Amino acid sequence: MDLRRLRYFVAVAEARSVGKAAERLRMAQPPLSVQIRKLEAEIGAPLFRRGTRGMDLTEAGQALLARASEALALAADGAEAARAVAAGKRGRLSVGYMFVLANAVLPRLIPELRRSIPGVDLDFAELSASTREARLLDRSVTVALCMPAIHHPEIQVARIGAEPFMLAMPIRSPLARLGAVPMAKLQGRPLIALPWPDHDPASSAVAALLRRHQIVMPIASRVETVHSAMSLVLAGEGLAILPACAQLGAPRGIVFRPLRDATDSIDIAVCWRRDSQSPLIRTFLKCAEKAVAPL
Amino acid sequence: MDLRRLRYFVAVAEARSVGKAAERLRMAQPPLSVQIRKLEAEIGAPLFRRGTRGMDLTEAGQALLARASEALALAADGAEAARAVAAGKRGRLSVGYMFVLANAVLPRLIPELRRSIPGVDLDFAELSASTREARLLDRSVTVALCMPAIHHPEIQVARIGAEPFMLAMPIRSPLARLGAVPMAKLQGRPLIALPWPDHDPASSAVAALLRRHQIVMPIASRVETVHSAMSLVLAGEGLAILPACAQLGAPRGIVFRPLRDATDSIDIAVCWRRDSQSPLIRTFLKCAEKAVAPL
DNA sequence: CTCAACCCATATGTTTTCGGTATGCCAATG
DNA sequence: CATTGGCATACCGAAAACATATGGGTTGAG
Rounded mean pLDDT of B97-115? Predict the structure, then answer.
């Protein structure tokens, strides 16, 4: 069963004439006649009544016509849908994000995305530092908003911004009275550390910052999320050095202060599989850049 | 867009491998690979991700797969439906019948039809003597139960039975006392005549009957239907010579009596267009014969 | 580290099928 | 009887599909 035959069949049925249909199909009449007869042979029954004034569907032909025109429409629609998905006009984009960025970026990013790619279903998933690579690699998220960037040979990274580090402390802390905290004041104070997933904690941005200023802060706790870090800070367990944007999700009772002399910052990046050919990624990147710009 | 390509595409998508799909399709692997690439070229986007362990649908491919498998099913179903209609297992049969036969034949015929061709939609239309030919010729009925048969070069006829003529009269008529009415008693009595559509009324079966017995009955009225004839008989306008089966639809107050010495009968026939190739006609004919047999 | 296995892609020749042109047949028309 | 209109058939050249042979990449075992 060839789709071309069905197309010809529908054309002849509508034109009620082989000649007229051939004209509309921009082909000669004889081959069309042959194709119709082949279709009839394939079905095993006449589909048209040949009269002296053209052709007329038999009942078997009518039964076929209903399905055939629908099948044609479906096939055309399938091709169109596939093109639309490939062009990024339809489809699904699953966006992963790390919790730190949720409050700072998502409120700007989501409306931007909906405006840019209205036909696309979006879904969002929070990523933890430990699973974000796997989620990209197994394609359960297409694109991820990360801080800092992921380093992996299969994963492509675009840096879209950076956040300075700030010191998070309880509002009652004596350091909170200062406008900006000199690095020296941190010496010896307990630190709530995050495992930035550069695997080796010593190489993390915070560790590097402290090492460069020759400050030693004993690690009071090591936690997975910014969330937990702030809870421990609030409980008086220690101080945390966090990207500025964490401020937006901070509970009452925590204050952030800039670190004087510390120009270090941590990258905000968009990451995706290098082999992912989704055209939505480019659009996503533009939206993300726009959403991050004011920071 | 070729249906074969879609079939190949679905096979590869399901097998998640060109080689496996080729095996299932009983063909070599390279041409299948080529066909898939041609489909991708036609769509204008990759439909599969080629991995080292087979192929995997892209999102565009998924969008196509949904429609493609549906289109395939629809096309197959269309062919099957056309075959079923051609074989008389499905479809529509419109049956015309003349009023005289309604009471005698339809109650047996309809259940018989439903049993024989359960997948077929039946519809019934009452035919008048004057339109029955036209209804067959323009195909608004496929098959007609007629009394008597239609004579027309385009119309084929099968005689399935015959009904003797009887005399219809008011119950109070003196003739009603006789068990069988001798033809001679009809001499000079007014007749309610029907225009059996052999166009020339003189050639109708009733006229022939009277002529053969050398009886003259003045025509009191000429009416279109058996119905009307019986009404006029009841009103005392005259007598009518009707097929025996008309008895079943007769109003109270009318009695039927056999005509002694008159062995004439009128055919019950099934008629259809000579060029109608519907296989339902044969089945209908069998059912009609069975329904008429006990008469 | 090399080798075999696996799987998809490409190349080439043969066969099938399709579309075009020329023509025949039949019925309706004048 | 000739003409017209419409579908069917015959034949030929072109295009497409399939099969066989082969290349290249990755995986996994020895």
Answer: 92
